[in-house]
User: Which sequence fits this backbone?
């Protein structure tokens, strides 16, 4: 038995995806598959983390859109493709990075709402996980927002 509400999840994802047509529908399917895979790997652990830790995880994923996008853009320069293709792919990577920035800002706003303490976006850095990532096949604790002095933001 799971604590997850699959009907809620489907509705939540459908609303988020509706403005993006087939790509949105594909995104929602992909998200549902990832939810199932996460449940298989982590079980009910999400219920013990709390909202703050889950927001931190979302912020990490949002930052990954910029980090992986920057790497993909550099890799594109190594591909034997024409200028029009480079322009199209680079524009897509720009949009993804912008979406990551918006998602990160949304997580800062959500944290502020929970903490009732202001979090200056330029004073927050994300500390690196000390353990492996799920891709490494290891569980890890959620990473927290840290102020530059190492304290909790």
Assistant:
């Amino acid at each position: 038995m799971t604590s997850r509400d699959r009907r809620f999840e489907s509705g939540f994802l459908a609303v988020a995806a509706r403005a993006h047509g087939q790509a949105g529908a594909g995104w929602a399917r992909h998200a549902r598959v990832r939810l199932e895979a996460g449940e298989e790997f982590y079980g009910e652990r999400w219920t013990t983390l709390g909202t703050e830790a889950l927001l931190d995880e979302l912020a990490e994923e949002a930052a990954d859109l910029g980090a992986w996008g920057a790497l993909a853009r550099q890799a594109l320069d190594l591909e034997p493709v024409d200028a029009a293709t480079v322009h199209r792919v680079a524009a897509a990577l720009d949009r993804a990075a912008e979406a990551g920035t918006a998602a990160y800002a949304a997580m800062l706003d959500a944290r502020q709402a929970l903490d009732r303490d202001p979090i200056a976006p330029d004073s927050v850095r994300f500390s690196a996980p000390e353990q492996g990532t799920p891709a490494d096949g290891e569980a890890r604790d959620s990473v927290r927002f840290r102020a530059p002095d190492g304290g909790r933001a």
